[in-house]
Amino acid sequence: MPDFQGILESIYQDAIKANDKGTVATYIPELAHIDKNNFGIHLRTFDGNEYGIGDYNKPFSIQSISKVLALSKAMALVSETIWNRVDVEPSGHPFNQLALLEIENGIPRNPLINSGAIVIADILISNLKNPKEDFLSYVRDLTGDDTINYNKTVAHSEKMTGFKNYAAANLLKSFKNLKNPVEEVLDFYFHQCSIEMTCSQLTKAFYFLSNKGTCLLNKTRLTKTQAKRINAIMLTCGFYDEAGEFAFEVGLPGKSGVGGGIVALLPDHFVITTWSPGLNKKGNSKLGMLALEQFTTKTKLSVF
């Protein structure tokens, strides 16, 4: 077995010396205040061992990483009917791009771009009695941690500046692919993205996707087939127009967020989360991408 702690320490030391740590997202004003020198890594192996270094227990805004958790909840609720409203193809475009949505008659390319995640939010609102409370309870149940919460300041910041998300939601509504009021759907979506978690909490939350749908608390959340499909979507669509690069360099299913987090996993082996708020030009964590490429190279553990 690899020396996981030694490998993480080596990766960490290399990463913090980097001259270019990327640029912190500023289009959500609350995220602009985050120090880009934050950097943490947390690894949970399938046998229950945990390894961490740096700021792995410091909470941050998970942003688009939440889209995977929302998708999993929606799949558990309505199963295959999701795919009538959202596709499973890589977009090849930035996460907030709208041109394809217009061309393809209001069917988002996949559930991990913004328009697709807004459709998933609409499905959750239609199927949950108290959507925001119930979704937060679901995330807490995945981790066994009731301290996880929404950051209402971040949610408000997104609401005040999310003009492209309003455009996407209204476009979806015009194609009758949004059942609930636009304001209601986006309020849920902005809260969903504002959830704060640590690297350690995220490795726990995503454990069920490495474990054929069964979470750390030994509760079945998804069928094996559903877990397989979400992992496939993460591999092909989890990094927007850099998904091919991530598959090429890292070789794991994963999901990034503009808060600087990345979660990646190898089924039946491990879940690993990195956090570094500085982003590259594609909106993915610069040091996180570098760290995960080094991790799979050093450990020789990937899906390929």
Task: Give the SSE map.
Elements: H1 4-16, E1 23-24, E2 40-45, E3 50-54, E4 60-61, H2 66-78, H3 99-103, H4 114-127, H5 131-143, E5 149-150, H6 152-161, H7 163-174, H8 182-194, E6 195-197, H9 199-205, H10 207-210, H11 224-237, H12 243-249, E7 254-256, E8 261-266, E9 270-275, E10 278-279, H13 286-299
Description:
This protein has 304 residues and is of the alpha+beta class. 46% of the residues lie in helices and 12% in strands. The protein contains 13 helices and ten strands. The chain has helices at residues 4-16, 66-78, 99-103, 114-127, 131-143, 152-161, 163-174, 182-194, 199-205, 207-210, 224-237, 243-249, 286-299, and strands at 23-24, 40-45, 50-54, 60-61, 149-150, 195-197, 254-256, 261-266, 270-275, 278-279. The strands form three sheets. It has a five-stranded antiparallel β-sheet, with helices on both faces. A hairpin with a 4-residue loop joins β2 (40-45) and β3 (50-54). The chain starts with a helix and ends in a 5-residue tail after the last helix. The mean pLDDT is 95.
